[in-house]
Amino acid sequence: MGSPLSVSIALVANSQGNKIAQRIKGRKSKLFTPQHQAQGETHFHQATLGLYVRPVECDKLIWMENSSDRPARRRRYSGRNPQNFEDKYKEHRSEVYPSDIAKVIERGQTPAGMHRPIMVSEILDALQLVPGNIAVDCTVGYGGHAGEMLLAIQPGGKFLGVDADPLELAKTEVRLRALVPDDASIELRRMNFAGLTAFLIEQAPEGVDALLADLGVSSMQLDDPARGFSFKFDGPLDMRMNPQRGLPASDWLFTIDQATLSQILFENSDEANAETIAKAILLAHAKQPLQTTLALVQVIRSSVLRLSDADQEMTVRRVFQALRIAVNDELRSLDAFLRQLPYWMRKGGRIAILTFHSGEDRRVKSAFKQGLQEGLYSQVSREVIRASAAEQRSNGRSSSAKLRVAIRS
Ligand SMILES: C[S@@+](CC[C@H](N)C(=O)[O-])C[C@H]1O[C@@H](n2cnc3c(N)ncnc32)[C@H](O)[C@@H]1O
Q1: Could you tell me which of 74, 75, 70, 89 has the C-alpha nearest to residue 30?
Q2: Which site from 125, 196, 242, 377 is most exposed, i.e. has the minimal number of CB atoms within 10 Å?
Q3: Calpha distance 190→171 (Å, rounded)
Q4: In this predicted model, what pLDDT tens digit does every residue of 353-374 receive, in sequence order?
Q5: Distance CA 246, CA 262 (A)
Q6: Which stretches of 118-272 are DSSP H helices?
Q7: Residue 143 has pLDDT above 90, yes or no
Q8: Reduced to 3 states, what is the DSSP secondary structure of residue 319?
């Protein structure tokens, strides 16, 4: 068991909560159950004690801690209310503190450790799920859409869900399994949706009735400084959806030249100052490797000093988006996904895809149009569907969302 900490205890429970507790180095074990997980305990302990929690499989966690036997205590924060992501312990335990969560949402914010699903009713209208359907969510995330899809196909339906992120998928699986009595109606897999064919050959060889892809990253990923996507709080410059694969952004920057970086900034986020920023980032990185998110923010801001503060922030936002897309090779995965998509669907099968920037939407629009011309789809959206004004007001992240729908012929 490799761990950066001195390991004294390992605790394992399966998804039914059965004890598979182990003693290591003769110390007493305490059971870590899916209920702990559902209450956000993984994050709590990670944050307060610096524990290292490593999901091994979707239904198992190994929890390792260093040698203190004292019970975990919440970290102290200054002031009356927690400011840091990891200190917002109530938000991380939505099941225990529902009224606090409601207040955060009322303020138009997303509680820490949660993701608010976007355009749920529009997506359910588009997918027209009925009991007995086979439905796939290719981007399960927090499970907001997945939970609605899962309930709509009961009884008798089968829900298949995938996500590239092993850390969040393990927690989401607990939430989704708690929604239905029949464990066999859910199958989740950590994988890139570009490789869905193998999963569907195994789970739905006859094809699927409905499929959703809600592209990009979740609020849990974006807001958690430890994941390295946040430009507001400092963290390691990582940005990987799956931290066990590929290179963190800090290393990826060593592999890229100025012209390519400039092109990435332009293509992935329409950045007007792409050349200047690419030059500044690579010069700074060569001088002193950029290891943290705020170090990168500093370089981006200083490269566009003539802009207003608000425009500098928009620039930082765009550059982070462009780098995240590149580090995770998101557009190549999307192209591979769109090529295979029609062949996964049953006749009449319905597809909904939510995109968040023009590079994604262009691809979806053109793949749907081509599929229509080739007779693979009987109908595709002529116009994008947008979130209602009320949703855009209550959840700013919905304002850039574009929904497109297609029906398999
Ligand atoms: C916007 S979130 C989905 C939120 C989800 N619909 C919900 O209601 O909670 C996007 C999710 O897609 C995942 N993702 C992005 N690209 C992926 C890919 N190529 N393969 C699998 N998962 C991917 C991310 O890890 C993230 O969890």
Answers
A1: 70
A2: 125
A3: 12
A4: 999 999 999 999 999 999 999 9
A5: 21
A6: 120-127, 144-152, 166-177, 196-203, 219-223, 249-252, 258-269
A7: yes
A8: helix
| Cβ-count burial 65-88 (b if 16+ within 10 Å, e if not) | beeeeeeeeeeeeeeeebeebbbb
CB atoms within 10 A of CB 299: 20
Fold adopted by 242-327: DNA polymerase; domain 1 (1.10.150)
Length of the chain in terms of residues written: 409
Ligand 1 site-directed mutation target among 163, 165, 245, 341, most atoms within 8 Å of CB: 163
If one counts every other C-beta atom within 10 angstroms of the C-beta of residue 281, the result is 23
| Cα(194) to centroid(ligand 1), Å | 12
Predicted pLDDT of residue 371: 98
Nearest atom in ligand 1 to the alpha carbon of residue 165 is 25
Give the 3-state secondary structure of residue 351: strand
Between 113-117, 258-262, 310-314, 378-382, the lowest mean confidence (pLDDT) is in 113-117
User: Which residue in the block uniquely carries the two structure tokens 């994604």?
Assistant: 360
Establish whether residue 145 lines the binding site of ligand 1, counting it when its CB lies within 6 angstroms of any ligand atom.
Answer: yes
pLDDT at 56 over 50: no
pLDDT, average across residues 74-92 = 72
Looking at residue 47, its pLDDT comes to 27
What SS3 state is found at 32? coil
pLDDT, position 36: 53
Per-residue pLDDT at 29: 38
Per-residue burial over 349-382, b = 16 or more CB atoms within 10 Å of its CB, e = otherwise: bbbbbbbbbebbbebbbebbeebbeeebbeebbe
Nearest CA-CA partner of 40 in 98, 93, 96, 82: 93
Give the gyration radius of the chain's Cα atoms: 22
DSSP 3-state of 211: strand
Q: Where are the domains of the chain?
A: 9-65, 120-218+331-408, 242-327
> What kind of fold does domain 120-218+331-408 have according to CATH?
Rossmann fold (3.40.50)
Pocket perturbation via mutation, ligand 1, pick of 121, 241, 397 by most ligand atoms within 8 A of CB: 241
